[in-house]
Amino acid sequence: MARYELRQGDSGEFWEIHLDRGGPVSIFSTHRRLILEEDVRPAVLTTRWGRIGTEGEEETRRVSGTLIDAMYRERVREKEARGFTRVKMVDTGPAPKSHPELEAAILKAPEAAEGYLVYGDWLQAQGDPRGELVALQHALFLAQDDPHGERIRISAWSDEARELERKVAEALRTHRGVLLGHALAEAVVEGMLRVGWHLGFIHDASVEGTGDAPPRELSVEEMLKLLLAHPSARFLQELNLGPIADMGGHDFQPLIRVIAKAAPRALRTLLVGDFDAPGNDWPTSSSFVGDLTPLYPALPQLRSLRVVGTGIRLGAIDLPELREFRLETTALSLEAVRSIAHARWPKLERLEVWFGSTAAGAEGGVDDLQPLLDARGVPELRHLGLCNAEFTDALCEALPRSKVLKQLHTLDLSRGTMTDAGAEKLVANAAAFAHLRRLDVTQNQLGTGAAARLAKLCPDVQRMHQRSSRFREVMVTD
User: Fold this and answer.
1) What is the spatial distance between Cα 261 and Cα 96, in angstroms, rounded to a whole number?
2) What pTM was estimated for this model as a whole?
3) I need a surface site. Which of 199, 379, 396, 458 has the fewest CB within 10 A?
4) pLDDT of 465-474, one tens digit each?
5) Residues 6+ away with beta carbon under 8 Å from 397
């Protein structure tokens, strides 16, 4: 609950308010799945008030989900007008249990269940509720499998599986003071934080802070620091940084510094600029990413990195375990182009780069990409995306004789400025592309005939949604 106080000498009044938007049986998601009607809770607004030092009185009201945010803000404004001020709640409770040797075993293989189960047994012996959660979630995962190891459809779940999920949800609710603490639990309720649990610990988290939200106890930066330092996030494997501004732009550089300082040792997947959720219509150009180089020494184990925005500085890329790198921008600098072209990615399998328009500040071209086209530093690369580029026709001329093409399974030239002239370069060198499993030339500037001729280059050629070639513009310009 958010707590407000009105002090009068040594005494005074307190007022607390808690917003629960309803939805699944727990505000903490256990895993992604379909939601059954009986799992859905109503939206409720709970208030408590009284003299400071007493338990006070409590009222809970069911409210329409479309009205609950407005009612929350109205109640808060009324109290602030009377002189109430918000105070930070302090988490109290036993110190978290820790066993460095067992934790190190999990960090070596955070995807494997065995380490969690051993650690969970030890936690249960110490009276730590995370131990109970490990056991319950493991039993639930087993109950969701059929004898052949396939996941069972939600509609075919057994009574045992349904009961276990309810026990997991109840454990997350009952012990949230230990599992998350007051501040992070409030961040979940306020929509700033979404977490997914795996075998007793937070597996994935999404952080955001936008819109006309109720007053928040923590800034997004403070909340991320708290999350990465929390015992429940010791084995965090996926982190998404979503929209973080109320108006104007999104500056992700402070959050990048927080991650670099915390250096989460189990993190495998990082998304900077998560604007994919329904209702998020922020343009790519509104996201400022800045310097990514502090992440390299902090996250040597990173497997997947996706970056959406502008002002991106890559420096000398050093991510030896990276398998996937995706960069979406409307204005890629020459420095960044050269960083990508000269990077040494011994295990990289998928690379996708959006270049942008020169009008927005994009720089570089085919000559600057030559080390990449020569397959230097990317021995395992199988998917290459050179997208949203003004020089797509020039790429069509250079690719047939490139060394990197020979090792690819899929090639993506979408959202660019490929014209019929560029397409004819590909058709004239059809043998160089015959080994590809998939070629994507969607959202370019091809005529019907040229697009049809491209269809014969490989088994799967995506060529829909062509645009007029009157203006040589890339697809994504905002």
Assistant:
1) 22
2) 0.83
3) 379
4) 998 877 788 8
5) 366, 422, 425
